Amino acid sequence: MHDTNALYEYTRRCALGESGIVSIGIQSNVPPGRVSAFIEPYRILYPGISFIYRDVSKRDVISALFDGIVDLVIIALPLNESCAATLPLWSDRIVAVTPTNHPLASSVTTCWSDLREETFVFGNDDTGEDMSTLLKRKASIAGFLPTVCREEIISLRTIALVINGHGITLMPAGWLAFFPGTILEQVTVLEVRDGDGFSHLDYGIGWRDRNLSTVAHKILVFLGKQNLE
């Protein structure tokens, strides 16, 4: 009888979205700690919900969403898929990183047009793709064609190329916290402004209504309310 009651209670809580398992695909360039900052408050409210995470490239995480392997995805926006919906969660400012002896190193901020003569080095990963896409869009508005080198490394390592004089790079400001002081003291970090203010990269959560579970839907409602507060 006890087992039957426990099963009934578990089934009831699953139907209400208070118990169950949610699979979340995380794009590999999402900074560590950001996802748990949004999910942890919900997990505390509903300890009966378990989370399974998959950390993969943007292409693979979108495929997993459409194949029904994951319920939700945390990605850099936009998610250019007509059959999926998104909710913005946070933004990260984009900064330019130069050697300390760079002509612009004495500045705190710069603009895109001041970077027209630069060589930009990016990694061959999702962040490199995001930064390259943003640069080309901003450069087009500023009236120049940027020089871009995509290296066969992860984007976190491009700071070493900057230090060694191979060019400059762009990265989310949130990444700076993961570099030791001995690295940061060898570079200069510049805010890049344009007519819209500081450039930024948006992150959000994506889903498909057709395979959205009750639990996943309740999480989205919770996150939506958090955004409004």
TrEMBL record:
<dbReference type="GO" id="GO:0003677">
    <property type="term" value="F:DNA binding"/>
</dbReference>
<keyword id="KW-0238">DNA-binding</keyword>
<dbReference type="InterPro" id="IPR005119">
    <property type="entry name" value="LysR_subst-bd"/>
</dbReference>
<protein>
    <recommendedName>
        <fullName>LysR substrate-binding domain-containing protein</fullName>
    </recommendedName>
</protein>
<dbReference type="GO" id="GO:0032993">
    <property type="term" value="C:protein-DNA complex"/>
</dbReference>
<dbReference type="GO" id="GO:0003700">
    <property type="term" value="F:DNA-binding transcription factor activity"/>
</dbReference>
<keyword id="KW-0804">Transcription</keyword>
<comment type="similarity">
    <text>Belongs to the LysR transcriptional regulatory family.</text>
</comment>
<feature type="domain" description="LysR substrate-binding">
    <location>
        <begin position="17"/>
        <end position="180"/>
    </location>
</feature>
<keyword id="KW-0805">Transcription regulation</keyword>
<dbReference type="Pfam" id="PF03466">
    <property type="entry name" value="LysR_substrate"/>
</dbReference>
